[in-house]
């Protein structure tokens, strides 16, 4: 039955992308349906839809802190399919039991970035035992991608950039603007798109990944030395 197997795409990912290269790329954002959940009576329908998905993208947001050592609780949970994203306003509905059950469901694959931090923040609102969760930062190197930020990984995969203009939003505000909702949805959607693209692409042999990492470490060391020398010359 080999003729029916899905053919993997050849791996053409670059290893890193610079800020200058990133700035030249066109913007991409989630254009699907955004559903804001801020009433308990809306939770069941959202959980029912998400419970029927095989793979979902996840992200969270908290009120930004400008004081060292001060951290705020997770205020927003974004869960996306390819065509729809739910924004759970945890300041309004808490961490609903039905949503926690999705994270504990071994049949639903949850994809995130720096996922341990997101899960830890959610567990502070309601404890659950996470199952079948994948952190993109743990798998991209297998494809030769060495950048670990969501914006750069997305750019490497798709040749487009996602906006970070709402990064300092106070997600505890009583109202979310359209641009804030679209921004938050884009991050969760982006993790899902990246995962879907990776699993359709040939990973690199481990030996090749090791060589790429070693060469990159040397390159980064040289760049750091050059910066140090430049700083000394300007002093």
Can you offer a commentary on this structure?
- There is one protein chain.
- A hairpin with a 3-residue loop joins strand 4 and strand 5 (about 85-90).
- The protein has two domains: about 1-205, Ribonuclease H-like superfamily/Ribonuclease H (Nucleotidyltransferase, domain 5, 2-Layer Sandwich), CATH 3.30.420; about 205-235.
- It has a six-stranded mixed sheet, with helices on both faces. Strands 1-8 form a two-stranded parallel ribbon.
- About 30% of the residues are buried.
- Helices cover about 40% and strands about 15% of the residues.
- Helix 6 crosses helix 7.
- It is of the alpha/beta class and about 240 residues long.
How is the secondary structure organized here?
Layout: H1 19-23, E1 27-28, E2 33-37, H2 43-50, E3 55-62, E4 74-80, E5 84-89, H3 90-93, H4 97-104, E6 109-112, H5 115-123, E7 133-135, H6 150-158, E8 161-162, H7 178-198, H8 206-234
- As for the CATH topology of the largest domain, it is Nucleotidyltransferase, domain 5
What form results from the Cα inertia axes?
globular
Strand order of the largest sheet: 2-5-4-3-6-7
Approximately what portion of the residues adopt beta-strand conformation?
15-25%
The secondary-structure class comes to alpha/beta
Alpha plus pi helix count: 8
How many strands, which pairing sense, and closed or not: the largest β-sheet? 6 strands, mixed
Number of domains: 2
Low-confidence runs (pLDDT<50, min 5 residues)? none
What's the helical proportion of residues? 25-40%
pLDDT averaged residue by residue: 93
- DSSP strand count: 8
CATH architecture of the largest domain: 2-Layer Sandwich
Rg measurement, Å: 20 Å
List SSEs in N-to-C order. HEEHEEEHHEHEHEHH
Separation, N- and C-terminal Cα atoms: 68 Å
- Going by CATH, what is the homologous superfamily of the largest domain? Ribonuclease H-like superfamily/Ribonuclease H
CATH class of the largest domain: Alpha Beta
């Amino acid at each position: 039955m080999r003729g029916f197997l899905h053919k993997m795409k050849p791996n053409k990912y670059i290893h890193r992308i610079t800020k200058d290269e990133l700035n030249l790329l066109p913007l991409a954002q989630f254009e699907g349906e955004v559903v804001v959940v801020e009433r308990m009576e809306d939770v069941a329908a959202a959980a029912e839809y998400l419970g029927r998905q095989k793979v979902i993208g996840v992200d969270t947001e908290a009120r930004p802190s400008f004081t060292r050592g001060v951290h705020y609780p997770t205020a927003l949970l974004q869960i996306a399919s390819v065509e729809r994203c739910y924004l759970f306003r945890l300041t309004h509905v808490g961490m609903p039991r039905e949503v926690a059950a999705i994270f504990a469901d071994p049949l639903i694959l949850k994809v995130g970035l720096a996922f341990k931090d997101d899960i830890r923040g959610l567990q502070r609102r309601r404890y659950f035992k996470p199952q079948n969760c994948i952190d993109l930062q743990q798998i991209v190197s297998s494809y030769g991608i060495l950048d670990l930020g969501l914006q750069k990984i997305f750019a490497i995969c798709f040749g487009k950039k996602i906006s970070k203009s709402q990064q300092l939003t106070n997600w505890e505000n009583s109202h979310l603007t359209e641009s804030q909702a679209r921004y938050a949805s884009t991050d969760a959607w982006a993790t899902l798109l990246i995962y879907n693209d990776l699993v359709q692409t040939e990973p690199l042999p481990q030996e090749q990944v090791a060589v790429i990492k070693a060469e990159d470490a040397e390159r980064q060391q040289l760049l750091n030395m050059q910066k140090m020398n430049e700083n000394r010359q300007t002093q």
